[in-house]
Amino acid sequence: MTKDFLQSLHRYWKKCNDILSLVKFPKKGIFQEKNISEDLNIFYRLTVAYALLYVVIEGYKNLELKDKNIDKILLNNVNLDNLRLLRNYTFHFQKAEVSEKLMRFIELKDSYDWVMNLKSEFDKFFSKTQD
Q1: Are 70 and 122 in contact (CB under 8 A)?
Q2: Which residues span the domain enclosing 30?
Q3: What is the mean pLDDT of each run of 10 residues along the chain (131 residues)?
Q4: This prediction's pTM
């Protein structure tokens, strides 16, 4: 693996991380706030950030990178497969505005914590590899 491939993956990570940092997660959960327009903006950012996270995971696996903490988190096949479906729905044209593919990952009880743990570990990973 060349350093160029790792730098390319890091660019995807920066995009994902930047969007995640823009998302203001509502305390009561999405679509439970009074401002539906704001909820939709949060939802749109969230789905793009999550879809980009899957792109990073895909690159991480394709490059055969190894990190024990990331690898352990990625063992959760339910979250991983549902995140893949969300990515497909987000980045491929769909006739339906909302579908089970999109909502399955969002509605998992631990999806937010899983993403935040993965985010933390990718932050550490890229801070080590970019030095």
Answers
A1: yes
A2: 3-129
A3: 84 93 63 64 87 97 96 96 94 79 85 92 91 61
A4: 0.86
